[in-house]
Amino acid sequence: MQESKQTQHADITGGGINTGETRQQEVVTQVLDIESISAPIREDELRARFLSFEPLFNADYQLVAHELILKGRMMADEQNSKELAQMDEDMLLTGLFSLVQDGLTGERPLLVRISAGVLLSDIPEQINHPGLIWVIPVHGSALFERAQKLQQAGLNICLDMHSLSAGVLPQTADWPYLQFDVNNELPPVNTAAKIIVENVCYADMLAHWPRESWFKGSLFTGETVQSDREFELRLELLAIAMRHPLETLMHFFKLNPLMEPRFVNIANSFAGGLSRPADSAAHALIMLGQQRTQRTAILVALAGTVTTEASRLYTKTALTRALFMGKTIRLGAPAESAALAFQIGLLSTVPHVLALSTRELVRRLGLDPVVARALGGWATPENKLLKLAHACEENDTELLLLYSRELNIDMNDVSAAYLEAVVAGEALEPALA
User: pLDDT tens across 333-350, in order?
Assistant: First the structure.
């Protein structure tokens, strides 16, 4: 089981598995080192605490640039305060000045967003550096004239096209960098200009922009925070799979075609176990039948429309647990049924993926009582099986011995069953690409 430990993630918990890992938020005095105020704080330490570098990627998911931002950005209700906005920008520029004074290094450009007031001041010339790209608002002739003068003086200027006033479209031929929101329409632009696209959440959004563009957003960073649309789609798919007949699921894929390719790919993989490939969701549903369709739909909900490194890991872990739990029951472990144990394994990472409590998951999906008790941490044979699977993931010998004895399964059989499940779980990877 040592080989499989590398494929697992220490933070994967769920299904009533109590690891005892609780993280408390640090208090402000700890963050600012007030308790050790006698020791001088280095300037680079302060920068590390307050500055962050948001990555930008190309269409091949390669890192190409960063944008300098403040950690702990203002909340929505604070953004209307000019005083707070001014304070944030002052902190950002102070950190940037310190970086430049220290000798800004790195092969990749650094974007810095500034306000109209800073653009009209002499600050850009004072902090100028060849590696900086100034992202500026474009809503007025005075700003255009100032930006042109700065560009003529050798500064790198990026027009924030999302800040355009209604009906205003500047001549873009003279500008080397243009920034858009992903929901903007791309107007005719200088073909030599580098297009920068913000807020990219889904892979299908990339098709609307030149391949040479730079992108930033949760699609590339794999942030766990997901949009309401994605969350609701995944939760709705789970609810339909658990509660409704195949006809309802077929209707779901007709209404949500972005989810269909993932379903077909998983159905055609080892997890689906089809004797011949399906060419559509409807075809796959007919060939799979009710039980295998439900299992496939759960894996689709775990993976999401656009998979990230985290969602791939949770999906493969869920399948591995399900296969392992089903196998150990056939080896003689006590449980209601292998089918329910399999379902418990599949659902065990859902609370983490969707950031839902087990109680909320039970309520919204209408789970079988056996499944609900196992996921809720009750001392049932199924919950012990789930804990045994987690012990295998952590290679915790002490817990392995404890739960294998309680379940009356030989340790050698446990090792063989888990290794077999890991290999099968990894076979799902191509369907998640």
Answer: 888 889 999 999 999 999
Could you tell me which of 232, 335, 326 has the C-alpha nearest to residue 271?
326
The CA radius of gyration of the chain, in Å to the nearest whole number, is 27
Q: Are residues 259 and 208 in the same domain?
A: no
Measured over the CA atoms of residue 256, residue 262, residue 267 and residue 272, the dihedral's sign is negative
Query: How far is the C-alpha of 430 from the C-alpha of 433, rounded, in Å?
Result: 5
In total, how many domains does the chain have? 2
In a domain, 27, yes or no: no
d(CA 315, CA 299): 6
What's the CATH number where 402 sits? 1.10.3210.10
Return the SS3 of 288: helix
pLDDT tens string 90-122: 888 888 888 887 777 667 899 999 888 888 998
| Identity of residue 121 | S
Alpha-carbon distance 14 to 92, whole Å? 39
Quick check: 38 and 52 in contact, CB under 8 A? no
Class of residue 73 by CB neighbours under 10 A (exposed 0-12, middle 13-18, buried 19+): exposed
